[in-house]
Structure formats: C-alpha cells, structure tokens
Specification:
It comes from Affinibrenneria salicis. With 88 residues, this protein is an all-beta fold. It contains no helices and seven strands. Strand 3 and strand 4 form a beta hairpin.
Length: 88
C-alpha cells in the first residue's frame, strides 16, 4: 500500500473466508482468518469487507484484472486509514 503496509490476502475456496498475513507494520507476523462479504461492481471492481480479530474493520475496492486495490481501515482506537496499492 502507499503507506508501506504489505499484506497477503488469500481468499479461500469456500468463497466466504479470507486468510490474512501482515508482512510489515505494527501487526507484522500476525495471521488471521475471518469471514468476508463481497459484491461485484462495474468495470471489474469488487467491494470487499470484513472485521478483523480485534474488531477493526476493513473495506476494499479491488480490481484483480487491473491489479489495483483501494482500502479503508478503521482500528478499534478510531484511527482511520485510506490506502491505495497494487495487487501482486
């Protein structure tokens, strides 16, 4: 992401679970699995959201063909991050 955060998101075959691994940042080394929801949008974009183990919330607008990700993250402390990055 544009703030230096690197995360691997792996969408499991069940179509409702995401496995998350933090490669950098405050949560470096943390791994979790949680349920996500998704909705297709126009032009190949998907709106994807989930709540993490600590109840922080994440919303992505991703285009897997264009390899672009826009992410919005709210922590339990109320910190709000708007991020943009590339999908590898």
């Amino acid at each position: 992401m544009n703030n230096g955060l690197e995360v691997v998101n792996h969408y499991l075959d069940d179509g409702k679970t995401i496995a998350i691994e933090f490669l950098s940042g405050d949560l470096k080394g943390e791994r979790m699995q949680t349920i996500f929801t998704w909705k297709p949008l126009s032009d190949g974009y998907f709106l994807i959201s989930w709540q993490e183990d600590d109840n922080s919330t994440v919303v992505h607008c991703d285009n897997f063909e264009k390899k672009k990700s826009y992410a919005y993250y709210t922590t339990m402390k109320g910190d709000f991050y708007v991020m943009e990055g590339n999908i590898a």
